[in-house]
Amino acid sequence: MIGRLRGVLAEVGDGDCLIDCGGVGYVVACGARTLGRLPAPGDETLLHVESQWSQDNGPRLYGFLTRDERRAFTTLLAIQGVGPKAALSVLDVLPPGELAGAVARDDKAAVGRANGVGPKLALRIVTELKGKSLGEVSFTPGAVAGTHASPAAPPPPSIAGEAVSALLGLGVAEVNARRAVDQALIRLGDEAELSATIRAALQELGR
Fold this sequence. Notes:
The protein is α+β, with helices and mostly antiparallel strands. It has three domains: 4-64, CATH 2.40.50.140; 67-138, DNA polymerase, domain 1 (Orthogonal Bundle); 159-205, Helicase, Ruva Protein, domain 3 (Orthogonal Bundle), CATH 1.10.8. 43% of the residues lie in helices and 21% in strands. It contains nine helices and seven strands, in the order E-E-E-H-E-E-H-H-H-H-H-E-E-H-H-H. It has helices at 32-36, 67-77, 84-93, 96-104, 108-111, 119-129, 159-169, 174-188, 194-205, and strands at residues 4-12, 16-21, 24-29, 44-54, 58-64, 133-134, 137-138. A five-stranded mixed beta barrel has the order 1-2-3-5-4. Strands 6-7 form a two-stranded antiparallel ribbon. The termini are far apart.
C-alpha cells in the first residue's frame, strides 16, 4: 500500500497529476484545491497518498498535501453515501480546519456547497463527524484533539479567507477563488496584505 510519494511532477491534468518517482510514473487523483497548490511541472513535490481499490476501476491513488487532508478524506469515506469524488469535493470547499468549524457550528449549508453533496448527505456528514478528531484537527466543538478545553473565541478572519470572500462577492466560483488565493499567497508569502493578495489572485484568474 502506497502512503506517500516524493518525485518530480511530470504533468497536471483535469482531476489528477503524474508524479515521476525514479522513472516510474504514478497517476494520482487530487482535488482542485490540491492541484492548484502543486509546484510547476518539472519541480519536486510530495503527496500524502491514500490507496483505494474498486472492482470497476481497480487500484487508484488519491493525493493530498498534508496528513490532515488525507485523514479527513478517509474519515469522509467511512460515511455512508460518500465516495472518493464527493470526499474530494468537500475538501475542495472546506479544508480540514474549516470542515471542523462547520461541523462544530452544525453548518450543513457550508458542507452542501461541495459538488455532488445534497442537503441529506450534508446533514449526514455533519452528524457523523461530530466528536471525531484527525491528528491536530478536532470535530468536537471548542476542543483541540486530545484535550478537553473549554470553547474559545473564534479566531480573527485570515487574509486568505477575506480574499476568498472578496472574490466570491465578484461572482467567482468558490473552488476557483480558493485556488487563485492559494497561488497568490505562494507568490507573495503568508504575510502579504489583503489588497495585494486580492490583486494577485485576480491575476491568477486571468491567466
